TrEMBL record, chain A:
Keywords: FAD, Flavoprotein. This is Xanthine dehydrogenase YagS FAD-binding subunit. GO terms for molecular function: FAD binding; oxidoreductase activity. It comes from the Bacteria. The keyword Flavoprotein applies.
UniProtKB/TrEMBL annotation, chain B:
One of its GO terms (molecular function) is metal ion binding. It comes from Muricoccus roseus. Residues 29-105 form the 2Fe-2S ferredoxin-type domain. This is Xanthine dehydrogenase YagT iron-sulfur-binding subunit. PANTHER family: OXIDOREDUCTASE WITH IRON-SULFUR SUBUNIT, OXIDOREDUCTASE, IRON-SULPHUR BINDING SUBUNIT-RELATED-RELATED. InterPro entries: 2Fe-2S-bd, 2Fe-2S-bd_dom_sf, 2Fe-2S_ferredoxin-like_sf, 2Fe-2S_ferredoxin-type, 2Fe2S_fd_BS, Aldehyde_Oxdr_Iron-Sulfur, Beta-grasp_dom_sf.
Amino acid sequence: MNRFSYARPGSVEDALREVSSNPAAKFIAGGTNLVDLMKYNVERPTHLVDVTRLPGLKEIGEAGEGGLRIGALVSNTAAAYDERVKERYPLLSSAILAGASAQLRNSATMGGNLLQRTRCYYFYDDATPCNKRAPGSGCPAKEGVNRIHAILGTSEHCIATHPSDMAVALAALEAVVKVAGPNGERSIPLADFHRLPGNMPEKDTNLHGDEIILAIELPEPRFAKNYTYLKLRDRLSYAFALVSVAAAMEMDGDKVVEARIALGGVAHKPWRLPEAEELLRGKVPERALFEAVAERILDGAKGYGHNDFKIDLARRAVIRALSQAAAGTPQSQVDKRIQ
Amino acid sequence: MADLELPLRQGFAPDAGPAQGPGPLPDEIPITLTINGERRALHVRPWTTLLDLLREDLSLYGTKKGCDHGQCGACTVLLDGERINSCLALAVMKDGCEVTTIEGLAGPDGTLHPMQEAFIEHDAFQCGYCTPGQICSAVALVKEGHATSRAEIREHMSGNLCRCGAYTNIVDAIEDVLAKEAAK
Ligand SMILES: Cc1cc2nc3c(=O)[nH]c(=O)nc-3n(C[C@H](O)[C@H](O)[C@H](O)COP(=O)(O)OP(=O)(O)OC[C@H]3O[C@@H](n4cnc5c(N)ncnc54)[C@H](O)[C@@H]3O)c2cc1C
Ligand code: SF4
Ligand code: FES
Ligand code: FES
């Protein structure tokens, strides 16, 4: 770890000032990603601004039109077990509980979870090149060890995935990220929050370095009955997703009114393809349809060698997740047998 | 395509030891922590983790350093009653909090905590390295109340690895304590 100074501001304004006056300053919340990366010299902030004591960011409260606002500093545990979240957004609760461990979820915050960085091995190893860590140095993952890497939306500059489970559910639920910066507040729809790598893989998100996340807002709940979060990984718990699928349907009788499908572990951001979701609109859900949807989503997917298996895995996971959602039998995050 | 081999870790900087320059060494920051019931006024550098503070400065060696990266659970302690990985927590950020380590679970007269008793009873360890973290984690699991079945215990204990593979007996011990709690 490099040396750094520490500040614990008492207001959002002071926190913003601390960070805007020093480009090498960073916010710290749970620390479960930032401290880890600092120990590997991947992140080297010279000043840490502790946001954990800022007033008003630890609450869960009603938002307009039946929505819910979850403060940026609410712990992953508190969000997952909150009665309103469990009842109205069980998909979110399930995705959070599929991630990390009980200990980590106690420290991890909503804002920090969204901003956690890729687990690409080369990104973590400062002895190797990596365009995300050291822009312009190259991407050894493309021809190297890439079992955990992306199959959709990659660029020649980076094939990393975003590792969050929570963000995948938030993408399916069309959450909005509320942020504040030197020029006031703004809202970023989750779909626009994370970026594709393009020719700037060092930028994971569209949040500016001098902006702070205040809260995540969820719209009116519509997917509390027919949903699932299916996470496939190398061990049954405490491991990042190779592929995950958040699927949700709003039903009218036996017909789908609207479907949402977001994939994790396959791209630099939670992956959604609205035109594939459209295939389900007004239809009676059945396997042939799910297969067509999966084909459409994976159309154009590209493997890099070790991760070729993800294309078929993702296709099957989409089909299974849609079956679980349609049947109203969400994947248990305890009993990992896939029904 | 390259052979399947993990990237080399050349030039990898070990975590322990004082943080490297540039810049002046920031002052130590005064904080207060209640550790195992005792209020302590301390001075810490910003980069000192709670784990390093406990082990290196306070000689509380019960809490173990396994991976130092949140991947094993050996460093699990209770912070204001909740289990956390002390290796990823900066001590300075925990100013004013209560910390309970494995040393603080037994009663003042040395009576072991029921979870400690159960671990002994069920032979729930071999080398013992993961045990303090397992026990702190298990104590929190009981308090959280989300796990009752064996499958739930396993899921909620997944943040604590045991390289000796004492898992079956660990689950037995926790199940035993849960059953005794339920019978109360
Ligand atoms: C062993 C291990 C296993 C894991 N497994 C999983 C898993 O399976 N699934 C999963 O989804 N995650 C997993 N995680 C990741 C974990 O979820 C994240 O580390 C955690 O959510 C980050 O939250 P934090 O509050 O600790 O963030 P921090 O580490 O404090 O911060 C992360 C980043 O966010 C910034 N930041 C934090 N809060 C704000 C804010 N309010 N405004 C602006 N910037 C902010 C910080 O500057 C930093 O850049 C795992 C982590 C570990 C160590
Ligand atoms: S995939 Fe992205 S993060 Fe990984 S080495 Fe390539 S540029 Fe770096
Ligand atoms: S030492 Fe903290 S989790 Fe391994
Ligand atoms: S008893 Fe040896 S690691 Fe668990």
